[in-house]
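Practice problem: predict the structure.
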Amino acid sequence: MDNVVEMFSLTKRYDENATVIDLYSGLGRRLLVFSAVLVRLLF
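Answer:
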């Protein structure tokens, strides 16, 4: 039973980290797409 609780806390911690990483990577991807569109429009 303790093992299950430990696993749950580990996955919870990982999920919290993953959401932060997803947020940053999502922003980075949007910036990349935005800059690519800008370059297309300008040149």
